[in-house]
Amino acid sequence: MSTRDSRNKEKQNQLHQAILQRMLQDPENKVCADCGTKGPRWASWNLGIFVCIRCSGIHRSIGVHITKVRSVNLDTWAPDWIKSMQQWGNKRAAEQWEAHLPTTFVRPVNDNGQMEMFIRDKYERMRYKRQPNDPPLSAPIYTSLTPSTEDQPKKEKKKSSSRKSSSSNGGAVLLDFSQPVQAPPKNAQSFGQQIQTQQRPAPTTSKPANPFDAVNNSTVNPSGDLLDLFSSQPPQQQPPTQQQPQSLQPLMQPQQQQQLVQQQQNSNAHDDILSLFNQPSQQQQQQQQ
Question: How far apart are CA 6 and CA 247, in angstroms?
Answer without folding.
Answer: 103
